[in-house]
Amino acid sequence: MNNPYLPEIAIVKEIIQETHNIKTFRLVFKDPDKMEQCVFEPGQVGQLSVFGTGESTFVINSPPTQKEYLQFSVMRAGEVTTKLHSLKVGDQIGVRAPLGNCFPYEAMKGKDIIIVGGGIGMAPLRTLLLYLLDNRQDYGEIKVIYGARSPEDLCFTYEFEQWRQKGADLVLTVDKEFPGWTERVGFVPAVLAEEAPAPMNRVAITCGPPIMIKFVLKGLKELDFADEQIITTLEKRMKCGIGLCGRCNIGTKYVCVDGPVFTQAELNELPAEL
Amino acid sequence: MVMGDLKFCPKEGLSRWVEELSREHTVLVPQQAGDAVEFLPFAEGSELSLDRQPTAPPKKSVFPQTETLMRFEYQKDPEHPDRQTLQIKETLPGKEKTVILGCRPCGARGFSVFDPVFGQGEYLDPYYQARREHTVFVSLACRHPENTCFCNWVGGGPADSAGSDVLMLPAGGGYVLRPVTDQGRQIVEVGGFEDASPEQQTEADRLAEEAAENLSPAPELEEVPDKLFELFENLDFWELMAAKCISCGACTYLCPTCYCFNISDEYSGLQGKRIRTWDNCMSNLFTHEASGHNPRPTKAQRLRNRVGHKFSYYPKLHEQVFACCGCGRCIKSCPMSVDIREIVLSAKEYADE
Ligand code: SF4
Ligand code: SF4
Ligand code: FES
Fold first, then answer.
1. Which residues pair with A205 in a beta bridge?
2. In DSSP terms, which residues pair with A23 in a beta bridge?
3. Are A184 and A172 contacting, i.e. CB atoms less than 8 angstroms apart?
């Protein structure tokens, strides 16, 4: 029987220092067959295992169309993430993936898209964005608002140009003026208000720090987005990742298997226990 | 019920049967250990303690308090001395058969709450399944329910067979044995018992009925799952319910239907193991996140989740079955006398107003 607790061994192929406290890891399963067989959908997560310390959950932020490695971006915050940050290229770790649900990318077909991300919150959105860009013809306008405290706190800076070339209308912003910064200045919700995307036939996807999400949601409401049009991905403390350990429930929903992706309309149905 | 299926085990025959079973199985039977009655392996001369409800249910026989999920080892990579390779080895339970004899029907019923979660969902738990498959439950029907028992509120009863493989019904100075599953039938066969006589059967039924009558009448709880959902936002209600609670978690550890667990690593040198341990949702740490955020920082919110899970979320997810078998252990073991029956009734009445 397939043992859902048992991680696959993966090798760290590449490490990218995104910001002072965020690193991106490109991982390849040790068993090439497993790499080949690994299919996932944008938004699904993986459990990364540093044996001796434990496991932690991250969204797979490479797109499903990219088959050579699985990519995860990790902000140093607790024990497991600190250990992950000490990994070197060639080190081996455990991976259980894919787990959880995904962004409703099928239902988004033919629609205009507004992606709103803040800080490390861009990581889960990256997988979706790259998927959309790889299937550019299936989607309408793709606007991305991405902000961080300072230019140094932005992730994926090295691929912004590529996103633009592939057809994303990328609006970058930082909280205040910085020498040499030529893009927008201001908090993400304020930039969203300036951009004022029309809600007609559009889906909004947002991820970022809780306070940003709160004001982005408010902003989207003011722009007349319906709750069904707003999608977010939740973070919760998880253990098993497979709906058994009882750790991550909000009422009847288990974030690990029923999430992490929810529409605002779905969240409204749940007890207020975020 | 096929005729001839019911057997009679005279009182003197019980230890002989258990002895016989213990030749090929580990047989756990309730035995007096200090003040407690615990499930311990039967050995020659072991005395069965069948008169009162065992202190803890037989939960740990299938779902141990601590179990190793896998072992891991780092090894120096000879070609790259600064690197280590990793090996992981799954540690599934063995296939030895275990018989639990003398648990109460509510103790076995607990597993019928576990089963849909660990053995029937999208992800199957191979550790639980292996043990569950190799464990046979012989439950003793209750003759004298305690005042904390309320199995009849939640679909059970003193002679309930859910989760059991054999039911032992006291009668005629012995026990009428009623096999519930094929595994149970095989276990009963080992005893080489005579068929139960019609008189013995009638007496067994009568005693079971009498026991059921000794329970407090079961209130109508059908609407409780919805009512608890409605009460979610009413924190005043939950603060009142949790006022006495000290978050010790005694209620969760002794509960036959509580299954929340933690996973952690133990490590020394280059090797270690990943273990799973029972966890306690009444503790502040249960949902405490690395960021410092906690979705359930107060005991009221935690009690709300515990009662909510048992009487609202679980039944909504699993065919209206309550995730509580009414064994009353949480009531008996709570140092502060928090009574889950009162909470359920208050919820029902509160919403009735
Ligand atoms: S909640 Fe209490 S009465 Fe119900 S099964 Fe658990 S310990 Fe027994
Ligand atoms: S046993 Fe009683 S005091 Fe302890 S956590 Fe449970 S309800 Fe609270
Ligand atoms: S993480 Fe275990 S149930 Fe969701």
1. A115, A231
2. A17, A74
3. yes
Question: Which residues of chain B neighbour A53 with C-beta distances below 8 Å?
Answer: 265, 267
Span B159-179, mean pLDDT?
Answer: 94
Take residue B232 and report the two structure tokens written for it. Answer: 């979610």
Domains in chain A, CATH or no CATH each:
8-99 (2.40.30.10), 112-225 (3.40.50.80), 234-274 (2.10.240)
Tokens standing for residue B277: 């341990």
Report the sign of the C-alpha dihedral through residues B69, A8, A72, A255, in that order.
Answer: negative
Nearest bound ligand to the CA of residue B118: 3
Pull the structure tokens for residue B80.
Answer: 């790259």
Describe the crossing of helices A188-195 and A210-222 by its angle, rounded to 10 degrees.
20
Q: Which residues contact B83 (CB under 8 A, 6 or more apart)?
A: A88, A90, A91, B76, B77
The one-letter code for the residue type at B269 is G
Tell me the pLDDT tens digit for each residue of A80-130: 999 999 999 999 999 999 999 999 999 999 999 999 999 999 999 999 999
The H or E element that residue B59 is part of is helix B59-62
Alpha carbon separation from A124 to A72, A100, A119, A232, B218 (Å, rounded): 9, 13, 11, 10, 50
CA distance B186 to B179: 9
- Lay out the sheet containing B36-41: strands in order across: B36-41, B26-33, B98-103, B135-140, B166-171, B174-179, B7-10, B194-195
Q: Is residue B189 classed as helix, strand or coil in its secondary structure? A: helix
Closest to B123 (Cβ–Cβ): which among A4, A54, A237?
Answer: A4
Instruction: Answer whether B118 sits within 8 Å of A53, measured CB to CB.
Output: no
- Identify the helix (H) or strand (E) that includes residue B331: helix B329-333
The alpha-carbon radius of gyration of chain A (Å, integer) is: 18
State which amino acid sits at residue B101.
L
The CA-atom distances, in angstroms, between A212 and each of A73, A147, A217, A227, B199 are: 19, 10, 9, 17, 74
How far is Cα B229 from Cα A2, in angstroms, rounded to an integer?
36
Work out the pLDDT band at B27, boundaries 50, 70, 90. Answer: very high
The residue with greater pLDDT, B52 or A72, is A72
Instruction: Return the structure tokens found at A191.
Output: 């930039």
Q: How many residue contacts between A and B have a Cβ separation below 8 Å?
A: 126
| Distance, CA of A117 to CA of A212 (rounded, Å) | 9
Residue A114 to residue A41: CA distance in whole angstroms: 19
What separation, in Å, do the N-terminal and C-terminal C-alpha atoms of chain B show? 45
CB-based contact A55 B80, cutoff 8 Å: no
CB atoms within 10 A of CB A168: 22
What is the Cα–Cα distance from B188 to B36, expressed in whole angstroms? 28
Token digits of residue A209: 């720090």
Structure tokens of B180? 């519930």
- Selected residues 95-114 of chain A with any CB under 8 Å from a CB in chain B: none
Residue B44 CA from chain centroid, whole number: 27
Task: Please identify which residue in the block is written with the tokens 């780092």.
Answer: B74
Quote the pLDDT of residue B353.
53
Q: How far apart are CA B100 and CA B109, in angstroms?
A: 13
In terms of C-beta density within 10 A (0-12 exposed, 13-18 middle, 19 or more buried), how is residue B53 classed? buried
| Residue A34 touches partner B, C-beta closer than 8 Å | no
Q: Do A53 and B265 touch (CB under 8 A)?
A: yes
Residues in chain B: 353
Q: What is the pTM of this model?
A: 0.93
Q: What is the ipTM of this complex?
A: 0.91
